[in-house]
Amino acid sequence: MIPSAQLIDLYRQACEIELQAFKPGNVSVYAEGHDMTVEDFRVSAQVSASPLCNPAYSLGEKIFYAVEATRDAVGCNTNLGIILLCAPMIQAVSQLFSGTSLRQDLSRVLAATTMEDADWVFKAIRLASPGGLGSSDQQDVNAKASVTLLDAMKIASSKDRIALQYVTDYKDVFDFAVLRYNERFDLWRAHSWAAVAVYTGLLSQFPDSHVERKYGERYSEQVASSMVMLDAELLNASDPDLIKPSLYRIDQAFKCQGINPGTTADMTVATVLAVFLEKLYGNPITHGASKRKL
Predict the structure, then answer these.
(1) Phi-psi bin for 129: left (phi > 0), alpha (psi -120 to 50), beta?
(2) What is the DSSP string of 50-64?
(3) What are the structural domains of the chain?
(4) Which residues contact 146 (CB under 8 A, 6 or more apart)?
(5) I need a labelling partner for 241 at 20 to 30 A (CA). Which of 12, 30, 111, 127 fits?
(6) Measured in whole angstroms, how far is the alpha carbon of residue 57 from the centre of its chain?
(7) 206: which DSSP letter?
(8) Residues 33/248, Cβ–Cβ less than 8 Å
(9) What pLDDT, in 10s, does the model give residues 205-217?
(10) Rounded distance, CA 99 to CA 9, Å?
């Protein structure tokens, strides 16, 4: 079994690396915004880590108690998406069976979700009160769940990219984002810049669910075209520091319009965590990230 303290450390570091990454429109050490600060996110990572990594909790309980701890600490929704994405991976790796992969164990966790898990998650969503959340004719989070958590995510998956990850065994994370992250880290040797490449790559291909819940498709083309250009500039850069002027310009433009690609930022955290957790399968006890270059 992987020690809870080790999982807590990896989760917190994944959250910190995402904050160190300059993600246009989102909160980072380079630019805060949307009435949230870097410290809000750091505190959120700190307080949500223990519930998420508590081996006594079910998947649904992990999610609810992590959201509750965050709400009590910072009074706003900073990390619901992060928690929803990270909890199943932490649940999957907590037992760490020999001869399996993270994605295989994750698939088993998702397939085994229950109605009780769904109820806990519905309570967590109500508590977090994410922007743009409305009611639904099917499995409204304001009512008691009558399907498993996986089935509830299937219903939401056409409109929410986090829900879609549950349905596809995290296809976007494992088939694109982890590969992009590892490739860019091998080239640049900096985790924060590898995380930027994940963010720009995802946004250049997929609309952000958080933005579209708030604005519909009003900004979808603008965001995609900006990210295609930025992603190409980043991938062609021998030194990613050289593209900071473009990052500042796009960040300011997005924030002036209230554009916050929060779902993509959440998926960036999940990607970093997946990279760390995959390494546990080769060295389950001694692996750590304390000396990683941000």
Answers:
(1) left
(2) HHHT-TTS-HHHHHH
(3) 4-280 (1.10.4200.10)
(4) 115, 139
(5) 12
(6) 20
(7) S
(8) no
(9) 999 999 999 999 9
(10) 24
